[in-house]
Amino acid sequence: MNRLPILAALVLAASPPLFAQAPEADLCTRLEKEVPRLMREGDVPGLSIAVLRDGRTVWTGALGVANPSGGARVTPDTVFQAASLSKPVFSYVVLRLADRGVIDLDRPLAAYLPHPRLKDERARRITARMVLSHTTGLPNWEFGDGPIPLRFTPGESWGYSGEAFVYLQKVAEALTGLPLDDLARREVFEPLGMTRSNYVWKPAFEADAAAGVDESGAVRPTDRGQKANAAASLLTTAGDYARFLTAVLEGRGLKPETRRAWLDPQSQV
Fold this sequence. Notes:
Distance between the termini: 29 Å
Strand content: 5-15%
Radius of gyration: 19 Å
Largest sheet: 3 strands, mixed
Low-confidence stretches: 9-17
Helix content: 25-40%
Shape: globular
Number of strands: 7
Mean pLDDT: 89
């Protein structure tokens, strides 16, 4: 089993029946009892969790160890690798840029910045809206330097793609003149008070960062040298991510029509 320390931010409207309808006091009591049990059963060494209800944080937990080899305990400030939870934060960045007219969600990205590895002419149809709704036709990842194939004509189907988010990242960086970590700090982290979040490693994370554990039980510390990746490299805490989710639910920082469009279904899966 992959025994990774876990970052969790739960919206109770989508949570299991065990917790969804409980009164707030009962909810907290159940979580304090059930979360440690679930960790033991799932062989999870460390966990940070924030529970939201009606747009506010009602319970937080910092349980277990951040690094099984060192024994450091998880705290509310422990930074976790958020993996694909990076994508919603970057989506918020793009929507804020769209609200200000910096990017048109329906203009082909190739009009802003051609992609050197996209040789299929159909790829010139890809837009930011397609990236955000996973309808570009690009694969999840295509490593190497060769051409990136399309799995389908852009806009005609659904297919999860990290490659597409990286392409949109490069467009956003070109349009703003800012690298992703600076752009996210300006558009998201500073406005929302997410002081323990970034798309690249910061020395301030050194004292309190969670390490992963692979299938063999080997500890895998965070890569300090990785490049900012809109699809995958976010480092954050459960508390910070809860602040982000609260802003999403409130529509903070977005035009009302943009917020509605973000939360409405965009394609059939």
